[in-house]
Specification:
This protein is about 55% helix and about 10% strand. By secondary structure, the chain is mainly α. The chain has a 3-stranded antiparallel sheet. Helix 2 packs across helix 3. The model has no long low-confidence stretch (mean pLDDT about 90).
Length: about 90
């Protein structure tokens, strides 16, 4: 099943809003998928697109520096955070 470009953009906006709401922490892909009520693989593909656009940052290591083997955490990029913050103040 193919999802239209406009729906993908709306889901991307939901993901960015979720990441903005939990700043400064980072969250796992599975948590994002649960909150957005979508499949993890689909959410991961959108997060990867957002990463290419430099709107999110993928964190591949835990706080002790050990790499995650099967999962990744995500947080909103500083640029996207500033845009959201300025938009909220309007």
């Amino acid at each position: 099943m193919k999802i239209s470009k406009s729906k993908r953009e709306k889901i991307s906006e939901q993901i960015l809003a979720l990441l903005y709401s939990v700043v400064p922490t980072s969250i796992f892909t599975s948590y994002v998928a649960k909150e957005i009520a979508r499949d993890e693989e689909f959410i991961k593909s959108i997060l990867t697109e957002l990463k290419e656009k430099k709107l999110v940052i993928e964190i591949k290591k835990n706080s002790k520096g050990a790499p995650y083997l099967r999962r990744a955490k995500w947080r909103i990029s500083d640029l996207a955070y500033q845009v959201y913050k300025n938009h909220q103040n309007l």
